[in-house]
Amino acid sequence: MSVRLFGETAEGEPVRAVRIAGGGLSAEFIEWGCVTRDLRLEGLDRSLVLGLATLRDYEAMAGGHVGAVAGRCANRISGARFVLDGREHRLEENVPGATLHSGSAGFGRALWRLEDHGAAHARFRIRQEDGAGGFPGAIEAEAEYRLEDRALLMVLTAQAGAPTLCNLAQHSYFNLSGEARIDDHRLTLAAGRLTPLGADMCPTGDVRAVSPAEDFREGRLVGARSIDVNYVLAEAPRAEPASAARLEAGRVMLEVETTAPGLQVYTADGLGPALAAPGAVPPGPRAGLCLEAQLWPDAVNRPGFPSVVLRPGEVWRQKTRLRLSARG
């Protein structure tokens, strides 16, 4: 385990990086965005996630959320507005017709603080005040990372001082092969339904069965097709992590288990170029595949979707486990 200064924000605030190792894995995280900057399997000389070279590179990338924890309400909110307890709240419209990952005030572009760390674990915390980004209520969140036997366990929790929204999602871009594109990755999903999108890239409110082209239950190559949609794992959060996805490429297999009821699959077609961290594939279109465990997008505006409302006295929690192994 080691802690070092990673850089300073444009406002002059120091940002630390912590590296942990154990169970055949090593990982590095930074306080800015609670980013997973590096994730390695013993015996491989490359990172299995996209990472950027410097803090300036992270700050300069307006979107992407490369490795960050998105929140306080991840994914899209249609119309950049919602009504909670009879009161309308207006948000930043940072993508056409919607708010994505809570806009410029989102957790993925904010400073978390390293609260605790050891040889194989690290815990970060963030607090955001009432009104930040247009959201009501102060909120505190924690992200704990723990390396187990060939697995990274991530536990995300949050509590609020007043009714608000909460949907945290870890936003790593996985690249298991080391190639420039993820088209050759074989993806298997434990989901036969999804939440279809309208023209604004927000869910229509329906839930439907996957079409043959969208069906990954038996495993298939990602190929050149663009994907950016929420697959339905369950109707509500589960008590313990359950199988969600398997990704295979370059002699590496990743298995994703989560308590979350949704998994956003994104082929990074809109990811811009940036300088890469040592040992990582350079970011760019289709350089990585996102598998974002989450509550369903735009749930606050879609009756029947699992609720993203967090009230005082409640604890929001998500557990996601990433199992990594070498094949053949």
How many helices? The count is 1
Mean pLDDT rating: 97
What Rg is obtained from the alpha carbons, in whole angstroms?
18 Å
| Second-tier CATH architecture | Distorted Sandwich
Q: What is the total tally of β strands?
A: 27
| Silhouette | globular
Tell me the fraction of residues in β-strands, as a range. Answer: 35-45%
Spatial strand order of the main sheet: 10-11-12-13-27-23-22-17-20
Biggest sheet features: 9 strands, antiparallel
Question: For this structure, what is the CATH class?
Answer: Mainly Beta
The N- to C-terminal Cα distance equals 30 Å
**Number of domain modules:** 1
Structural class of the helix and strand makeup? mainly beta
What string gives the helices and strands in order? Answer: EEEEHEEEEEEEEEEEEEEEEEEEEEEE
Fraction of residues in H or I helices: under 10%
Segments where pLDDT lies below 50 for 5+ residues? none
Give me the CATH fold name.
Answer: Beta-galactosidase, Chain A, domain 5
Structure in a nutshell:
This protein is mainly β and about 325 residues long. It has one domain: Beta-galactosidase, Chain A, domain 5. It has 1 helix and 27 strands.
